[in-house]
Amino acid sequence: MVQLGLIGLGKMGFNMRERLRAAGHEVVGYDRNPDVSDTTSLEDLVSKLDAPRIVWIMVPAGEPTRATVTELSNLLAAGDMVIDGGNSKYTDDKLNADLLAAKSIGYLDCGVSGGVWGKDNGYGLMVGGAASDVEKAMPIFDALRPDGPREEGFSHAGDVGAGHYAKMIHNGIEYGMMQAFAEGFELLEAAKVVKDVPAVIKGWQRGTVVRSWLLDLLVRALDEDPELDDLEGYVEDSGEGRWTLEEAINNAVPAPVISAALFARFASRQEHSAAMRAVAALRNQFGGHAVKKVGG
Amino acid sequence: MVQLGLIGLGKMGFNMRERLRAAGHEVVGYDRNPDVSDTTSLEDLVSKLDAPRIVWIMVPAGEPTRATVTELSNLLAAGDMVIDGGNSKYTDDKLNADLLAAKSIGYLDCGVSGGVWGKDNGYGLMVGGAASDVEKAMPIFDALRPDGPREEGFSHAGDVGAGHYAKMIHNGIEYGMMQAFAEGFELLEAAKVVKDVPAVIKGWQRGTVVRSWLLDLLVRALDEDPELDDLEGYVEDSGEGRWTLEEAINNAVPAPVISAALFARFASRQEHSAAMRAVAALRNQFGGHAVKKVGG
Amino acid sequence: MVQLGLIGLGKMGFNMRERLRAAGHEVVGYDRNPDVSDTTSLEDLVSKLDAPRIVWIMVPAGEPTRATVTELSNLLAAGDMVIDGGNSKYTDDKLNADLLAAKSIGYLDCGVSGGVWGKDNGYGLMVGGAASDVEKAMPIFDALRPDGPREEGFSHAGDVGAGHYAKMIHNGIEYGMMQAFAEGFELLEAAKVVKDVPAVIKGWQRGTVVRSWLLDLLVRALDEDPELDDLEGYVEDSGEGRWTLEEAINNAVPAPVISAALFARFASRQEHSAAMRAVAALRNQFGGHAVKKVGG
Amino acid sequence: MVQLGLIGLGKMGFNMRERLRAAGHEVVGYDRNPDVSDTTSLEDLVSKLDAPRIVWIMVPAGEPTRATVTELSNLLAAGDMVIDGGNSKYTDDKLNADLLAAKSIGYLDCGVSGGVWGKDNGYGLMVGGAASDVEKAMPIFDALRPDGPREEGFSHAGDVGAGHYAKMIHNGIEYGMMQAFAEGFELLEAAKVVKDVPAVIKGWQRGTVVRSWLLDLLVRALDEDPELDDLEGYVEDSGEGRWTLEEAINNAVPAPVISAALFARFASRQEHSAAMRAVAALRNQFGGHAVKKVGG
């Protein structure tokens, strides 16, 4: 059994503490929200851990994570280790690792997949960093990952940054898969040839080529709301989809599906985009085509 | 000077009659609307023309055009000729030509581009059919096409159907070009790095790579409405864009730009598409992500 | 235990006969290849079945299936039933059903998914037709579908045609999912941030959002060929992807992901497409850009 | 008549010197290639200009331009002005302007469009910077821009960076337009319904909606090579297309057409992409589909 400091007890971190404790590990959690926190401050958290310490960060990517790493670099000691399990951009990892390495503190980046289901199912983990550091943290990873062969729910992806890189690409693929299901659902709904759309989708769960966890979730959603009309078709995107597309650009890799999935989300949040107003204006100019006037 | 029967005096046909008459030709027009019609019926129209007759059809594609051809096949005589100048699907042309050929009536299909500007600028023409028939109708084509070298505003594209095929592809390209300008406009609007978007677009009219008639029309639209917000971004599509994509499918030709332009129009007419409701539902299922509830 | 005539003993039909017999059903198979056929002709096959007969067709879609249905309409008797389990276009089903209904022969269309794995895993089934006909064939469907709850591997999708419609959309989704994984794989390969790409992909099999049967197959392929360079990136497409895109056009449904996946396959089979030669020619014209001359 | 220092006498700079001199301006040019250079060094160039000097940089974007600006900041004096006419990323402009402003040297960024045709036709110009600086350089801009109304070939787009931003978007649109023509060309070639593809495209030059300079160039290319098969379909991309897509990402603007055009270029340079090898491998796994083995 090992001891872990865990910073950030939101939806993900809270569940991870539960899963780790259920596996018999000691977790000292810190969150700004005192209702869920085990400690009063990062300083307090560090003081409650025995050296060499492992501290897992699970706070929002970007500035919050970077600031937490900086603060930890001043609190931890040589031989300790920090793991960033958040959704950081992989380029942040090198900065974090260098900052900590200057004080002989180790660093791993860990992409974590599985959402709210991870508490019970386990989390898919992709880790970047030195093999020796990965080895030290393996009891933690083993507790967080799903049951079954380790290599089916955990990978040591490469050097620092590779874990978040793998997670970024994972999410890019996820965008594409979700959009594929979404287009199929819309086609079934629109054509009305299939009478019982939820039944068809439920019937894809076994034996078919498209069987997948996302399909299972779609079935679950349709069980609750058979036409999916309780929700608006307004879809946020997190950083990973955008970063994946940036990587496609940087590496000259065609990514038509992933970009289409991302753009569909952008478009879902627009009403009467400037682009389509321009197309309407052009049609109006050359053809005298009927157009919709605002308020008309 | 030649004589022409012209069926259909809507936005396009009406202007074409004007242009033909201005060129000195005799046009007998028929339209269901007696206010613009020169004749009371197709029978009357045919009786007013000297054999061998040329009758130009300019009515909506599909059933209306097919029905007009059928009616004309019963009214015209061997040696006469029908020209379909509407936006018919190219597969209709073979049917029309065969029907008329059985009575030794000639047939040409003619794609016509230029919109409401054609009356003054002339119309771009793409013609399919036998060379001898094209030759007979050339005075008409010469009057309708723009000034300048004939081969820059007119083409004999091939056999029956080739004229409408060329027009279909022309429109597919047009969809892509319009969407390209539209995306550029939206990017300029969104980023706010460029302060005077209409001035930039106006300044592209000479010397640049993107100079084009569509750009001129965009400038015109921006002169009237600098942010293009009098119109809704709701864009219809006519058959040609869809048929172009069908041709891409049938010929295994990748058409990512033309399809993207068509899909952008489809999406512009949707509110909260089923697809994006499905994506929202999936995110909700796996991540407990914040979503917008209807009415929420 | 029931009795079934099965026409077409290729890769799919052969395995289905195995699975049905393993479940205790009596299968009389016919194939043009005498090495695998149980009978010498369709006539012979029909004579070996007791009325009311059920005959399952598993031959190539289009003309071969249509011809088989026609032949069966002359051999079967009132009260018999035909099931088309091939990859027919859903519009063929109405024609088949009407032809057979004239002789009081029933008809079901059944989309079958699962490939070569179906023999052991069972096949995902989507059925169109009358509920009473579905009921009669249920022992067959139960033997072919995977173990587990019936509704997770079988659906009665709607009237005649709905089964193949559901299968068509299933395959459209499949195209999108495959392309999503493919783009992710290429990005991992290209960027070289992740050192062990197969390990990362293997590690996605449990706990992650992208876990799926296609992912399992990708892991299997990478186990055999870690850089996937034994195969050429030349990908055929079957009818269903194209038909799905046609449905998107017909129903004005944006399908950017499914179309992108289809176009990627088209492009994979081209070398120096006319389109890209045109782009190269344009760049050459306006910019004097360096271009590759053929043989240069 | 004004005096201008011009750094970089490649394809673009050389022609611009010609056009400026033809307009009666004094141009002192510098290039590393002594055969075309008027001076031996930047220092020599600066010494040959009367204060307040205007120096136009026309060297490759990125490091070469940044280095030239740095060097000029040490050679020029307060009241002088630098204009970057290259294809710099707009974010470089702020850096350049700040560096020069520290020495009271002015800075303008100028997007230049028109390629090798600009010498005779004039260049489309988009300028970013202070109005007073724009005013000072106006004689230069007026000589470089096309004849006709100034505002149709020149724009003051906004503050520093806005000129290159406008040029970047211009190029993004250009990518989309080129790909639209390219897809149309390929469809015409593939379907073979149109017998004389070059004639059809030539016939679009007047009266049609797609008439444009790019179309004129396509006609020119087809005049030289009617099937465009002297060139390989291998297409480079410059920075602007990629940056435009980055801007789409950063501003959450859907850019399906521009991205498709960029990805088509990426794909044109690949043979058997990793993505399509992955799709082939998946099909092989689930279906035992025929695939092409390398060397097979």
TrEMBL record, chains A, B, C, D:
<dbReference type="InterPro" id="IPR004849">
    <property type="entry name" value="6DGDH_YqeC"/>
</dbReference>
<dbReference type="Pfam" id="PF03446">
    <property type="entry name" value="NAD_binding_2"/>
</dbReference>
<feature type="domain" description="6-phosphogluconate dehydrogenase C-terminal">
    <location>
        <begin position="163"/>
        <end position="296"/>
    </location>
</feature>
<protein>
    <submittedName>
        <fullName>Phosphogluconate dehydrogenase (NAD(+)-dependent, decarboxylating)</fullName>
        <ecNumber>1.1.1.343</ecNumber>
    </submittedName>
</protein>
<dbReference type="InterPro" id="IPR006114">
    <property type="entry name" value="6PGDH_C"/>
</dbReference>
<dbReference type="InterPro" id="IPR036291">
    <property type="entry name" value="NAD(P)-bd_dom_sf"/>
</dbReference>
<comment type="similarity">
    <text>Belongs to the 6-phosphogluconate dehydrogenase family.</text>
</comment>
<dbReference type="InterPro" id="IPR006115">
    <property type="entry name" value="6PGDH_NADP-bd"/>
</dbReference>
<dbReference type="InterPro" id="IPR006184">
    <property type="entry name" value="6PGdom_BS"/>
</dbReference>
<keyword id="KW-0560">Oxidoreductase</keyword>
<dbReference type="GO" id="GO:0016491">
    <property type="term" value="F:oxidoreductase activity"/>
</dbReference>
<dbReference type="Pfam" id="PF00393">
    <property type="entry name" value="6PGD"/>
</dbReference>
<dbReference type="InterPro" id="IPR006183">
    <property type="entry name" value="Pgluconate_DH"/>
</dbReference>
<dbReference type="InterPro" id="IPR013328">
    <property type="entry name" value="6PGD_dom2"/>
</dbReference>
<keyword id="KW-0311">Gluconate utilization</keyword>
<dbReference type="InterPro" id="IPR008927">
    <property type="entry name" value="6-PGluconate_DH-like_C_sf"/>
</dbReference>
